[in-house]
């Protein structure tokens, strides 16, 4: 019996083990309701398609491969998605299932055993009796209420109907026809048809309300577009807020034209629209809506030739060479004119560089040139290699082709919401240091190599990438296109929200924060203020609303964004990503979303258009038009301006070596603020970029004003090439940020056509051109490259910084002034550009230096190869040199910089003046870091510094809470436990000023608050936020001079001398003085002191007289000499009571000559702390530059005119160790004047005050006898890259300045605020002399008048010093004051009459 029992147990155990060994488990991965129950893919179809994902597991890991089958031929096996040694995720696709319920069985076998799984699913009928909810907006919104699962597509019987899916069973519908009556549409379902009637979205409109129609250009001749997409325009005045127009074209009868309001007032607005499809000169009919039908109001015939994009003219055959094994070179010769277009260069489908001239232009002129450019191979490259310029692919054979590594896989994935639409995606791949990804692409943004690497181990690498999902997605068919990882061999792996990346457990790429907005779920829209007056003032407001129907709302894990869609906020057609969005925050107190935002000044009266979005590419943008009147924001304004400034006159004036361009700019409501211009040489491609501001205005106001800028065309050798200079790009800003944009070759800029600043000149292309006559000189020999070298930084912390030195020469005509070449660094996937500085220059040779600090992500797996292009000579020809050329003629053209880790802050979230939370973005972060905050707010006495620890931390993002309330900027820095510090980063809080003095004093009943379920926001300091910032940011409001009365008889010396403004007299060069009654003469360049930065000039009385009479230069023994001197005297640290606690006298200076007109001096001071424990060094550098001709320079966001024969001081001070952050530095400058004359009639005079020329400067005048020394010094400096105000103080009494009749001395202290890194004080011009009142004299007899004084001009950083001499001198600037005044008066009369 025991034997039988033993045998039974033995057989049973072996049977169980055998079954277990052969068992296969199947897990369903498609278990959601929507995956098992579907409608047909489109409404008219009657069959459904299904995809079923499942996991097969071999528990004992036998290694036997799986085989798959099903019990029906309708189920198709799709293959393995992901697998390991014992498991696989696979899918079956079930195609063509008719309506009904189904079951099908999948069979998985491994060896002799198998397992089965039964899938149950249904193909549902879409009945034609659906309940729906139409929204009569534009577009119409149609939502099906009774569908149980998602319907992807619908079919309309009407051919003019277009639609897009914008949410679950929600569709946006539009028609290509203009629907003035209710629209009947039919949806085709397999079970029948559904008829829907949609109301017209157009209001009845009365033709009698039209007033003027203006065409631009108003001409029947053939006219070519000046800029791509800048076609003809029309303006119409209308009393309606929403008129509608249609352009009827025989070739496009249903063409709809979009118009937008540009200026006006309630009851009288001007609208602008573009006329297209007019190449053939057809008769076009402008129609308008009258009641419910369109009627003709005007016939238009325009023959306007469209401007075409042309990359390189017509190149001959394209050559290819591969001399160097690491890069290849393409070359060709163009036989037609280059059109200044921007070209995109692709390598294996990836854009390497996007550039226009000068990249690749090897030699020649714009008429005909040779092109040569080098591109480096990827480290591992398949052959053939595909290279592409724009849309033209060129395949080359790569002789070093290598198959490379396999596809790279994601091993782990995590996504977290940070702020706004910023999400942190953390992925770990199987990449190692020997198998790095070429790039990771998320939401169409590329991240190269180790750019976002946070840790690297033997077999895998982790990346943290912060992605902005504004209008993006990870969906397979969404805007983002998922996550793409490309190896250096070009093999790519793509992961979307349908992709599995893990098999144990089975995990997909997910994006849980994207959801479809439902219109019906947005409730209770309110605004803090309504019926708000925005005349001449930007206003802050708050939007509140609820969103129901989603559980994640309660967790505060989603964000909405508000976009204002009025003309002052958005140019129709402009990419939305380029526009301003305001983001929501969850208010837990009132349990509502709230969005703080600004309404632009002088916005249009009426309902303000806006929309809400959740960032989902495919989700609906919720427009304000979807909601009733009680949810609308009403704007009140009697003076609307939505068009930027326009140019109403263009002139030129040629002087000596320069071309002066003169623009009359008009903006009658908001006023002109500033503008950016690009002018190009038509033959040599020389580029002149400059900005016009109020400092360039020579006459008028910001409403109508005359502005000038000087282009230096020829150098001192007087050689130059005769050519035309053409305006190619202009952006003009008004005082409230509206833009007028012209871009001749911007292929994507057509939507700017209705903002054209040249609207008055569409029929006159010649107005864009300027001529400068140089004679017939031509230099056919292009500049040559003499040397090229690369120096890497020796510092371990600066391994990403290199310095490149190179020299160019042109023996025949020299290199053209003010034209710098461009240095290009290119890898297989990235590029970088750098503009060098000049370190030496003479008539034929120029030495350049370029220091490049690469982004941490740049070229960490590839060599960077350099090329240089854009050398231009004075004879009309340019040259450039490819990496191939540089490698063959010099030591190398490439450098490897590797990958360096260091703690760094790269960006941050926005923060308001109310303080609170702040996200800090960067790299090498960890939870033990602390945030050091230095507040610049003087009101935070005793709380100027703060230390915070993060409340949430990632390797690339840290969240801090507890930022103090402040209206001022503050500086942050991260510090770890070992004392290692990050870079400093400036935070500029947004100040939402809800109440101002006008609200409190005027009791404006129009500015009413909605009933809001929240407390009233606290008042804050007003924000000065109107226009885009100039080239450098400012930290506080800059000081300006007080208005002054104009002096002189006649006033300001008559119209030829100057003109009167509210600030006093503004003189025309060469006239100077507060009354413009004195003139200056031009003298020879003085010899620079080689031991000390001083400017010293001696002049004799006889020389003054002879320079006026052009007689001999001989002197006699009775000559009377005058001596002027300016010098850098000392540096002092001043305490809080403005008392000096340290004084540094400058010792030995190191001298170097920059060029024939510039010299550099450097010295170092040792700064010892008061306790004697530490000593640091500070470097002071001074550059002296002589200006032979009148020149306009820019400093601290100001354009400053340097008069002929002036010397400019530029002084920079490096980091200084202050004893206390409340201290400041004072740079002391000395000025003196003396004479050898020693009789009883000698007098001296000292005068100090504010200038009247509008340059916001101080002036100092010291005078001895007949000679005056005049200094003008600016009241601003560049402090740590920010423009700040400085104080200029007269120190004569405290420093015991000499005051004798024949010798006078003055000291000026330039008070510099606390800084960290450096400060720069730069030049000003000068040109004034004063009367002799209150002079110190030996004898009180009157001396000669101010109009008889002789002079020398010396400009400096702080001073521009003049000895003024009466002499005949040509007048450079002729002002046609009476004519301009008459033109302005006429224009103002026209404007007033038009707007009555």
From TrEMBL:
<feature type="signal peptide">
    <location>
        <begin position="1"/>
        <end position="21"/>
    </location>
</feature>
<dbReference type="Pfam" id="PF23033">
    <property type="entry name" value="DUF7034"/>
</dbReference>
<feature type="domain" description="DUF7949">
    <location>
        <begin position="1046"/>
        <end position="1080"/>
    </location>
</feature>
<feature type="domain" description="ComC supersandwich">
    <location>
        <begin position="1109"/>
        <end position="1323"/>
    </location>
</feature>
<dbReference type="Pfam" id="PF25820">
    <property type="entry name" value="DUF7949"/>
</dbReference>
<keyword id="KW-1133">Transmembrane helix</keyword>
<keyword id="KW-0812">Transmembrane</keyword>
<feature type="compositionally biased region" description="Low complexity">
    <location>
        <begin position="1002"/>
        <end position="1040"/>
    </location>
</feature>
<keyword id="KW-0732">Signal</keyword>
<feature type="region of interest" description="Disordered">
    <location>
        <begin position="1002"/>
        <end position="1045"/>
    </location>
</feature>
<feature type="domain" description="DUF7035">
    <location>
        <begin position="641"/>
        <end position="774"/>
    </location>
</feature>
<dbReference type="InterPro" id="IPR057709">
    <property type="entry name" value="DUF7949"/>
</dbReference>
<dbReference type="Pfam" id="PF23034">
    <property type="entry name" value="DUF7035"/>
</dbReference>
<feature type="domain" description="DUF7034">
    <location>
        <begin position="783"/>
        <end position="889"/>
    </location>
</feature>
<feature type="transmembrane region" description="Helical">
    <location>
        <begin position="1349"/>
        <end position="1372"/>
    </location>
</feature>
<protein>
    <recommendedName>
        <fullName>EGF-like domain-containing protein</fullName>
    </recommendedName>
</protein>
<keyword id="KW-0472">Membrane</keyword>
<dbReference type="InterPro" id="IPR055463">
    <property type="entry name" value="DUF7035"/>
</dbReference>
<dbReference type="InterPro" id="IPR055462">
    <property type="entry name" value="DUF7034"/>
</dbReference>
<dbReference type="Pfam" id="PF22933">
    <property type="entry name" value="ComC_SSD"/>
</dbReference>
<dbReference type="InterPro" id="IPR054484">
    <property type="entry name" value="ComC_SSD"/>
</dbReference>
